[in-house]
Amino acid sequence: MLIGIDASRATTTHRTGTENYSLHLIRGLLLSGREHQFRLYTQQPPPDGLFDAQRAEVRSMPFPRLWTHVRLSAEMALQPPDVLFVPAHVLPLIHPRRSVATVHDLGFLRYPEAHLPRDLRYLRWSTGWNARQAAAVIADSAATKADLVQAYDVPPSKVHVVYLGGPEGADSSAGLDRTPAQAACGEVLSRYGLADATGGGPAPYLLYVGTLQPRKNLARVIDAFARIAADPALADYRLVLAGKQGWLYEDLAAQVQRLGLAGRVLFPGYVPEADLPALLRGARAFVFPSLYEGFGIPVLEAGAYGVPVITSTTSSLPEVAGDAALLVDPHDVDAIAAAMYRLVTDDALAAELAQRGHANVRRFSWEKCARETLAVLESVARGR
Predict the structure, then answer these.
(1) Bridge pairing between strands 159-161 and 309-312
(2) How many other β-carbons are positioned within 10 Å of the β-carbon of residue 14?
(3) What per-residue string of b and e applies to 351-376 under the rule 16 or more CB within 10 Å gives b?
(4) Are residues 295 and 140 in contact, defined by beta-carbon separation less than 8 angstroms?
């Protein structure tokens, strides 16, 4: 069977959630589906070594605009694969009858105000298009499946829940041995202005990693931090909001100035993958009370490095976090502040959540994600 995959998101230089999903899943499919042929469609040639060249044919098709709906559509009309899989975008207008698409989340329906109007229009159209046109839909979580069934009247049998994998190396217990890791990562922390001046390790900080956009609820995170930052005993604590600037980032920067938190709330920008372990290991807690997530990989990334997590009671986040996080109402600033205060003052609780978080990560793997995704593709190919 020839499986075609839209790999255009996986070749992005600065990958975030959906791009990393595409890359890890494609690599897993190439390993799991050795009896099949794979053809990867990209807009630009991928970097050397990104994919196993012996396992897949890479078809790079440069095109200036509307790549999916014009260039990929043309390819599907001329040389369709047996099954087309789109892991992180939208099915092209012309596609094989046997096509599968992943829908990551429907947060735009719950929180339309957190999106630009043009983005909102496209998300509504593209998600509906995928739901109607795909022979099968993959959802990141049971929460996303429920939203699809309710919002688009998709038959439940058409939607398959396949959990994403955890961070690479998450099965190792090394993530919990944080003291040696902190010393080894001192150079990285120094570059981000997070090294303790005494040389005793990192300065105390709370960490968020992700795109800086309204859906991530960062305005309330900053307000919550302002409440605990007023405690003289926590005068050394900082809040690090790491990630590329998204829509309304300027409002967050203005909020920090207005609250008198300049120098205590840091915006280091996009964090390269190589630096992320050091930032996670050095953090006292990972703060992720997002309004809505289709899955929430950052929760697992924090757990893999033994960092206690604060996250939301909404969407898929309870599914992913299990009993390994403090769950808060993301709309309640007092609740977020109280969870922050508990984790920076209660060493026993922080240690217990770190242990639970590391165990929780083992429920998820890219090998399992690839195996279950491949089963969906094979079922569609058989016409089931």
Answers:
(1) unpaired
(2) 10
(3) eebbebbbebbeebbbebbbbebbeb
(4) yes
Dihedral angle of Cα 140, 141, 145, 148, to the nearest 10 degrees: -60
The tally of CA atoms less than 13 A away on the side-chain side of residue 276 is 22
Q: What is the pLDDT of residues 141-177, one digit of tens each?
A: 999 999 999 999 999 999 999 999 987 644 444 444 4
pTM of this structure: 0.85
Cα distances (angstroms) measured from residue 103 to each of 91, 128, 136, 168, 261: 11, 10, 11, 23, 38
Nearest-Å Rg of the Cα atoms of the chain is 21
Separation between Cα atoms, residue 251 and residue 222, nearest integer Å: 11
pLDDT band at 287 (very low <50, low <70, confident <90, very high): very high
Q: Rounded to 5 degrees, what are φ and ψ at 98?
A: -95, 85
With contact defined as beta carbons under 8 Å apart, do 268 and 242 qualify? yes
Res 85: pLDDT: 98
CB burial of 76-115 (b: ≥16 within 10 Å; e: otherwise) equals beeebbebbbbbbbbbbeebbebbbbbbbbbbbbeeeebb
CA distances from 379 to 98, 329, 342, 375, 384 (A): 10, 39, 48, 6, 5
- Whole-number pLDDT of residue 168: 63
Could you tell me the CA-to-CA distances from 32 to 7, 26, 53, 99, 200 in Å, in that order?
17, 10, 15, 19, 45
DSSP assignment, residue 70?
Answer: I
Distances (CA, A) of 339 to 65, 131, 231, 323, 335: 46, 38, 15, 15, 6
Tokens of 304: 């893999």
Per-residue pLDDT at 13: 77
As a whole number of angstroms, the distance between CA 2 and CA 37 comes to 5
Nearest to 355 by CA among 293, 308, 288: 308
Interatomic CA distance for residues 51 and 62, integer angstroms: 18
Strand partners of residue 6? 41
Report the C-alpha gap between 36 and 83 in whole angstroms: 11
pLDDT at 179 over 70: no
Cα–Cα nearest to 17, from 198, 179, 244, 327: 244
The structure tokens listed for 101 are: 């698409």
